[in-house]
Amino acid sequence: MPEKTLAPEAGPAPSGPAVEPLAGAEVTKPRSLGQDAWRELRSNPIFWVSAVLLVLFLLMAAVPSLFTSTDPGHADLRNHYLGKPAWGHIFQQDWFGYNGQGQSVYARTIYGARASVIIGVCVTLGVTLVGGLIGMFAGYFGGWIDTLLSRLTDIFFGIPLLLGGMVLLQAFTHRTIWTVVLALATFGWMPLARVMRGAVITQKQADFVTAARALGAGTGRILLRHILPNALAPVIVVATIALGGFVSAEATLSYLGIGLQSTVSWGVDISDAQNVLRDAPHVLLVPATFLSLTVLSFILLGDAVRDAFDPKLR
Description:
Blueprint: H1 33-42, H2 45-62, H3 77-80, H4 105-141, H5 143-157, H6 161-169, H7 177-186, H8 190-203, H9 207-214, H10 219-255, H11 266-273, H12 282-309
Helix pairs in contact: 1-12, 2-4, 2-12, 4-5, 4-7, 4-8, 4-10, 4-12, 5-8, 6-7, 8-10, 9-10, 10-11, 10-12, 11-12
């Protein structure tokens, strides 16, 4: 009889840690560009310094009564003519002294932030909208549309911002915040248009745009859902940096006497202070310092945002 083959006895199970199935593994979702940028901004001290200063200036513009209860238009020539600063009286009306009209420099500096910040923000929103639309249409459609819009942009580029603003403002007999916004926005949209055009040209050649077009997506869907979100990053950076320039431009126009009228503004106060600079330099230095800090904060914030959105600059 043939011998029976005995099956080998099963040995002990191999020892070692149990391997979890691949299907149960937790998958980490990739971060978006905005999440990466925010992570980079949180570790940048320049971002926090500029952000804190800007929040302070925005509060001054929105709710000046938080900082002072003094009327910036109240004048007392008899008792306060060119009064010297009382540096120990923090947050009081004589903290920064008085101007040639006997008005509190501290109160006028606080209330002067409103006009400068409102003009800077509104002009930036306006030029971003106008320049963004022109650049998006020129970059996406190309051809004669791109040629026409690009030549229009070149024509406006030949007109300096301040010169164009001065000429346009001369057409208004009464100049307010909104007339200054209109003048600066009319001659300030061109850099945003060029940046948007270049970003759209780059994005429309991407594979996901080609795939969306092959799947039958319309022009509006491609522009709004695919190209615009990916082209906004450089536009946001340029707009943030330009905001500080618009604040400075408003102060320059007001200093020249062509900007705001009968409105508390840093530019107006600097213009009025030039006649008493030798006798009371604080009347000019205080609003000029706040104006410089505001412009510097916007520029630093724009630089930080640019570094965060561009991995090559990190």
